[in-house]
């Protein structure tokens, strides 16, 4: 099937004849999804920020909002899989299709392959919108592609298009679970001997994470918070509460600053730093990459119990402002600076480096993220991570501890960075698993790798290094 090439969109709805004027524009839910898809593809918007704002602005609620959410997040997550099927059905590379038309095709094919929407409705709504946005020829092109897609289900398409499971099991898993191959490979590498869990890891990225709260130490206990919010006390972190649903920002405890929204894995990382063995802790604690301040807040609340004071460094001014806001009343000194050249006086007892990273361990939180990241991001971030860790070690006194953490399991961002530090700097690795008790299944050590499918947390990595 050949189709029209890239071309001009209509500036407005056509008024040029009875046939075209019968075209119906998208209903509010599909329109919202389509607009967010375009914002994601053309302006690098984050779907999970853009969609709620747009729904509120347009007053879309209830079932329409739920449908718009399913369409938007679902289409963003499986974009690469949809593109492969669209490419096969259109018999051309998806990159050669007009980007607006491609977003429409993604929306239509998602409905055909992954929802209970009647195929006729999925096709006709998309075709009408293509004709309105462009012209009848392109409406016809969309019609042809979607009708071809609708002749088969997803399993049938993937059976034809996925790499062979025996000769390329990782490529196969990546295709079927709609991930770029390099990300599936990175997860398999990080799983090591447990690479059999790859499918569970990939499947987990399509699940919406449960909201976790942290009860602020000194303000209220997890049990009190759970009772107040009708939640469940967490499995591992003594501060964690799992919310059954609803908007956490509306909870009294969160508004009063007694609880914060924080993944249990992040709570465990902040707590691990406070549990590390440090002789004669003088209470000088540092968070070198602090924005927006979630871990700083927990560290500061824990530090307050023993008289420790936290200094927080953050390079981005708006994120430094968030650190100040999120730690108000906790005595945190916030510095807007590059952590590699903070100008701070060395001699800290405990230092957290929660490094900027690819975020591959938190893909479930950002529907489009898996398709936006590229392998070339890794060396750039790994260099920054090595430099930040080196700076942290330089700011820590002998006997003090640096906790290096990422929310990515990619080996180049995790063990690769730590191995470099162990080679170049006067540090020794502690058994970080001991600092994460009672969590089990943390890997062979000495470092810690959390996994969503095992622990229900983001895939955080942590390594505690003691300065010699
Ligand atoms: C993973 S986030 C930290 C999350 C934070 N610890 C929390 O729990 O809320 C990494 C942060 O490092 C900041 N950052 C990036 N480069 C930096 C640098 N050179 N120096 C200091 N901070 C930096 C980013 O702006 C980002 O806010």
From TrEMBL:
Residue ranges of the region described as Disordered: 1-28
Sample GO molecular function, one term: RNA methyltransferase activity
Protein name: rRNA cytosine-C5-methyltransferase
Keyword Methyltransferase carried by entry: yes
Family: Belongs to the class I-like SAM-binding methyltransferase superfamily. RsmB/NOP family.
Biological role stated in the UniProt entry: May act as RNA methyltransferase.
CDD domains, sorted: AdoMet_MTases (cd02440)
Keyword RNA-binding: yes
Pfam families: Methyltr_RsmB-F, NusB
Segments traversing the membrane: none
Catalytic site: 407 (nucleophile)
Residues binding S-adenosyl-L-methionine, per UniProt: 289-295, 314, 338, 354
Location of the SAM-dependent MTase RsmB/NOP-type domain: 187-468
Segments of skewed composition (Basic and acidic residues): 13-28
Organism: Mycolicibacter heraklionensis
UniProtKB keywords: Methyltransferase, RNA-binding, S-adenosyl-L-methionine, Transferase
SUPFAM superfamilies xrefs: NusB-like (SSF48013), S-adenosyl-L-methionine-dependent methyltransferases (SSF53335)
Signal peptide boundaries: none
BP GO terms, sorted: regulation of DNA-templated transcription; RNA methylation
């Amino acid at each position: 099937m050949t189709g029209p090439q890239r071309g001009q969109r209509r500036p407005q709805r056509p008024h040029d004849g009875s046939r075209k004027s019968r075209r119906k524009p998208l209903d509010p839910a599909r329109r919202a999804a389509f607009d967010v898809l375009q914002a994601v593809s053309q302006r690098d918007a984050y779907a999970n920020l853009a969609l709620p704002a747009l729904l509120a602005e347009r007053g879309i609620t209830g079932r329409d909002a739920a449908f718009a959410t399913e369409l938007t997040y679902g289409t963003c997550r499986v974009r690469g899989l949809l593109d492969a099927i669209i490419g096969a059905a259109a018999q051309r590379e998806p990159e050669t299709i007009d980007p607006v038309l491609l977003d429409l095709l993604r929306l239509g094919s998602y409905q055909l392959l992954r929802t209970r929407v009647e195929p006729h409705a999925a096709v006709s709504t998309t075709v009408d919108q293509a004709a309105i946005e462009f012209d009848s020829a392109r409406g016809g092109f969309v019609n042809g592609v979607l009708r071809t897609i609708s002749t088969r289900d997803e399993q049938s398409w993937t059976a034809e298009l996925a790499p062979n499971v025996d000769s390329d099991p990782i490529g196969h898993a990546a295709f079927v679970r709609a991930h770029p191959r390099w990300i599936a490979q990175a997860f398999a590498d990080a799983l090591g001997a447990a690479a059999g869990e790859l499918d569970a890891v990939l499947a987990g990225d399509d699940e919406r994470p449960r909201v976790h709260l942290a009860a602020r130490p000194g303000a209220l206990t997890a049990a009190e918070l759970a009772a107040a919010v009708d939640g469940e006390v967490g499995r591992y972190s003594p501060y964690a509460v799992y919310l059954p649903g609803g908007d956490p920002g509306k909870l009294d405890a969160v508004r009063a600053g007694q609880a914060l929204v924080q993944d249990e894995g992040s709570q465990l990382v902040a707590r691990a730093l406070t549990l590390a063995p440090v002789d004669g802790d003088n209470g000088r604690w540092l968070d070198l990459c602090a924005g927006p301040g979630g871990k700083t807040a927990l560290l500061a609340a824990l530090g307050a119990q023993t008289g420790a004071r936290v200094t927080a460094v953050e390079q981005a001014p708006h994120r430094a402002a968030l650190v100040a806001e999120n730690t108000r009343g906790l005595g945190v000194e916030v510095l807007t600076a590059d952590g590699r050249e903070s100008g701070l006086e060395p001699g800290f007892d405990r230092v957290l480096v929660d490094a900027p990273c690819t975020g591959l361990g938190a893909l479930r939180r950002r529907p489009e993220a898996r398709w936006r990241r590229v392998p070339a991001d890794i060396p750039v971030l790994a260099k920054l991570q090595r430099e930040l860790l080196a700076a942290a070690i330089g700011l820590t006194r002998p006997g003090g501890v640096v906790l290096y953490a990422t929310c990515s399991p990619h080996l180049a961002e995790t063990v690769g960075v730590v191995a470099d530090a162990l080679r170049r700097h006067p540090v020794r690795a502690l058994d970080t698993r001991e600092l994460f008790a009672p969590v089990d299944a943390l890997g062979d050590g000495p470092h810690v790798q959390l996994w969503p499918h095992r622990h229900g947390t983001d895939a955080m990595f942590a390594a505690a290094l003691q300065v010699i």
